[in-house]
Amino acid sequence: MYLRQGTFSHLPELTDAEIGAQVRYALLNNWPVSIEYTDDPHPRNVYWEMWGLPLFDLDEPDGVLAEIEACRAAFPRYYIRVTAYDASYGRQTTALSFLVNQPADEPGFRLARSDSQDRRQVYSLHPYATDAPSGERYEPEARR
């Protein structure tokens, strides 16, 4: 399974040079960049942990790339994303968001179906990763 989330979700994984180009684009548009990580990538989980503070007042992507590498070193089996925020008047929203790190093995999701009133069927997603406690969700099977 390969998680598809963010702006470039249907492209192959971005190289560090391509990540740097996207960060440069965000900085040229005066969008502050932040780095976030999680081990629960459910589509409705919008509250990821922040890696440090948002990176304001940068002109070059080198500082952001260094922080991405530090986050990858600290959390190699987590999902890590870069988010650029457009704070311009009238917008004030996420302008760009994409994954820069994923675990080597993604267990995927289970589609759970349940019956509701009037014979309706309700579907929900259950990530297999959440069967393990937080921080141990993407450990190799031998280590669990």
From TrEMBL:
Q: What else is known?
A: The basic functional RuBisCO is composed of a large chain homodimer in a 'head-to-tail' conformation. In form I RuBisCO this homodimer is arranged in a barrel-like tetramer with the small subunits forming a tetrameric 'cap' on each end of the 'barrel'.
Which residues does the annotated region (Disordered) include? 109-144
Membrane-spanning ranges? none
Under what name is this protein listed?
Ribulose bisphosphate carboxylase small subunit
Q: Which family does it belong to?
A: Belongs to the RuBisCO small chain family.
Record domain Ribulose bisphosphate carboxylase small subunit: where: 4-103
- Keywords assigned by UniProt? Calvin cycle, Carbon dioxide fixation
Instruction: Please name the InterPro entries in this protein's record.
Output: RuBisCO_ssu (IPR024681), RuBisCO_ssu_dom (IPR000894), RuBisCO_ssu_sf (IPR036385)
Work out whether the entry's keyword set contains Protein transport.
no
Tell me the SUPFAM superfamilies matching this sequence: RuBisCO, small subunit
Pfam families (UniProt xref)? RuBisCO_small
Q: Where is the composition biased (Basic and acidic residues)?
A: 112-121, 134-144
List the coiled-coil residues. none
Q: Which domain of life is it from?
A: Bacteria
Q: What organism does the UniProt record list as the source?
A: Nocardia albiluteola
Per UniProt, subunit arrangement is: Heterohexadecamer of 8 large and 8 small subunits.
